[in-house]
Request: fold
Amino acid sequence: MARENWNSRIGLILAMAGNAVGLGNFLRFPVQAAQNGGGAFMIPYFTAFVLLAIPLMWVEWSIGRYGGKYNHGSLPGMLETMWDHPISKYLGVIGLFISTIIIIYYTYIESWTLGFSFFSLTKEYFGSDTFDSMSSFLGSYQGKGEGHFASILPAYIFLLITMAMNFWVLSKGISKGIEIFAKIALPALLFFGIVLAIWVFTVGTPDLIKHPDWSVAKGFAFIWNPDFESLSQSKIWLAAAGQVFFTLSVGMGTLHAYASYVKGNDDIALSGLTTASLNEFTEVILGASIAIPIAVAFFGLNQTQEIAAGGAYDLGFVSMPVIFQQIPMGSYIGFMWFFLLFFAGITSSVAMAQPLISFLKEQFGFTHKKATAVIGLSIFMCVNFIVVFYEYGVLGEMDYWAGTFSLVVLALLEVIVFAWIFGMDKGWRELNAGSDIKIPLVFKFIIKFITPIYLIVILVFWIKQEAIPTLMMDSVEPEQVPYRWLARGLMVTVLGILLLMIKKASSKTGRLKFKMREQSGEDDV
Reply:
């Protein structure tokens, strides 16, 4: 049976951009900027974007398209085609591990956005008009204590709907499922984002703002006024590097999976740059123009700083609903905000599941429907762990090891394989094959030398400043420690299962199964 391909270039670009555009664009980015020097944060941010994110994005597109020529849609097989060594496929397991763990907790957070879009339309949270009362509303929805909701059932219902939507899209395949959904979801997301950004600029009128020193303009100043003294702090540079990994979804194994369905000589250089540009517009222009500025206008600078210090959840699910209750047509604006977040979430989560589905199909001969069902059921069983133990910090534990630390580890490994083992000359030819643009030659040097050095420095600092204290649970409350160990046990179990699956898939031949596509002379690199 012939392997799928994207039906159109615009479908590919929208799907790739949808993979990159996620909850982090609208929640994590403005909080990171506000917490780390305001406008000065953009200096390490764009430095990391040019020296890390763009090179890694091109590396992952290249690895994906190259692996796709050998019928591989997941990282273990892709790395093995580039490095004929038994260890290569096991390094690729890290990609499957990251996708699996992130989607387990990501879909639960994603389901909150669907629930709150419904609560906005029905005005369910109206009446919880202070920060404390709205925090209680969110906490009771999450099952963390008494409040508006008597049980976790409403959250569970929206989780079921969210899971069903994710795997319904995935069940339709690449061209008839993910591509069609991306053509609908991403334009809708951008439309909602632009409308909300325009709305923010119109809010600062005297009849809405009672305090003369509370304004949208002060909110933008809070984000964009640079505190250059902060640039001397290593944590600012680490935060910026962490954000660029989130912003382009590099180091997750998802870009590779989508790129594997690109035809052998289709452009990836310009297509990759286009998706990165779409993502940056969404994050830097739209993401920074909504939540923080409007929070300053309604809460003032001091409380917004406290909100930003509390993280993305306080900003998105507590402060914004309080604001929606104070404005005309607030229920509809609230629906638009949360549905924007839902679209951002689902376009990313379907990408996380795709490498797992591809792996089962290509290595174990599963039909597409069967692979989707198995992955869907497995993820659903694991998500229940998050639902039950959420209040004990298990989500944060999994997010650090899989959604932060492991991203840098995988990125370093894949750039070493691509540039040093496969060979930078061969890799450069693969990247430029069929290209519609001429990539500046300096990026050949950046990919081979600057990017891996940058990643090593980040990894060393993270191990010293964060990984060791996190491993030792230095700041974890005693009652949470057993549950954090449960989360670690779940992650180790997932990793072990994936390693056993890789071993079984390659037990007969010593290599993962692949079938070389028939290629014309011009397809060779």
About this structure: The chain has one domain: 9-506.
